[in-house]
Amino acid sequence: MSSAKPAPVLEALTSALNVPIQKREDSFYEPRQQGYYSPSPEGTWQLAQTNQTHAPNHSLPALNRRNIRLISWNIDVLTPFHEERMSAALTYLDELVFSTPPDVAIVVFLQEMGTSDMQQIRESVWIKKRFYLTDVDETSWLSPYYGTTMLVDRRLQINSVFRVPWYSKFDRDGLFVDICISESAKANANPRFIRLCNTHLESLVADPPVRPIQIAVASQYLHQSSVSCGVVAGDLNAIQPFDRTLHTENKLNDAYLMCGGSEDSEDGYTWGQQVPEALRNRFGCSRMDKILYMGSIQPTSFERIGIDVKVAEEHRQKMREAGQLEWVTDHYGVMADFVLLEGGELGQIGQSAML
């Protein structure tokens, strides 16, 4: 496994820091449709067809069509020992997925993906058995750094996948997936969706602020007429006072707060606990990672994940010798269970064909 520091990522970040943000032509910020991927019987990833029907398979039970679990985790792209850390992260996520009630659909949001991360995801047997991938490489990313991807339960019916570039100096965007739902309580023939957005909002402090623009655009897409309910989640880089109110200003709810959490609470922080002491002393701890939602959906539980997850024992000594911490990433992840309201049910054309 490689342990070299990802110099191109650092160079790209430094370059972006040293130039002002540039507004591009309006067409640049239009939605960009993309495909998604399903494993073939031979185990290779191939483009899936929207709304495709799979032959029934009973390796997983039918869905509880009113419940869905969302997991979000940022795996630090700037720290060396990429493969070792991502391997441990995937092992942990496998255990988390396995511990989930088998009739509950799962969607996993990942941020700060690199090319080696995508290779490890493609090769993971447990992912092939249960999930679609929105990405198998960096093709749809605005740059090969700071990529995002989603793992989507293959019992769900995907209507579309698209990306919306944000106004950003770091090439950030929103990755959207529309999942079909039915609303038995409404006599409405028009298709309706739960729209999920995985994002990594602008890093650091900007003047004027950029994150309010980014979350406002995400909210606009969640509030479109075809969307029954929506979720935007990920590393929202909430490090300034204005970040605390971005959800209310954009007609969104904060799952952590709605489940009883409070600001400035140790049990809410997702960054700062797993960084070098000098960084923690300088920046403190913060609740960077959030799950925001709107519409006919309600969180029933919220928790942090990835706490004190470290690389495999056989890699720790060489990481210590290189002056690196043993944790998989500097972020805790977040996880929320949701229930659909107003008679909404997750669309399920047929059981996914599991390998």
UniProtKB/TrEMBL annotation:
Entry superkingdom: Eukaryota
Chief location: nucleus
Needed cofactors: Mg(2+); Mn(2+)
Signal peptide, first to last residue: none
GO molecular function list: 5'-tyrosyl-DNA phosphodiesterase activity; metal ion binding; nuclease activity; single-stranded DNA binding
Subcellular location field: Nucleus, PML body
Pfam families per record: Exo_endo_phos
InterPro entries on file: Endo/exonu/phosph_ase_sf, Endo/exonuclease/phosphatase, TDP2-like
Residue ranges occupied by any Endonuclease/exonuclease/phosphatase domain in the UniProt entry: 71-331
UniProt xrefs under Gene3D superfamilies: Endonuclease/exonuclease/phosphatase (3.60.10.10)
Entry keyword annotation includes Cell inner membrane: no
Alphabetical keyword list: DNA damage, DNA repair, Hydrolase, Magnesium, Metal-binding, Nuclease, Nucleus
Keyword Metal-binding: yes
One GO CC term on file: cytoplasm
Gene Ontology biological process: double-strand break repair
CDD domains xref list: TDP2
PANTHER family: TRAF AND TNF RECEPTOR-ASSOCIATED PROTEIN, TYROSYL-DNA PHOSPHODIESTERASE 2
Protein name, per record: Endonuclease/exonuclease/phosphatase domain-containing protein
Lineage, highest ranks first: Eukaryota, Fungi, Dikarya, Ascomycota, Pezizomycotina
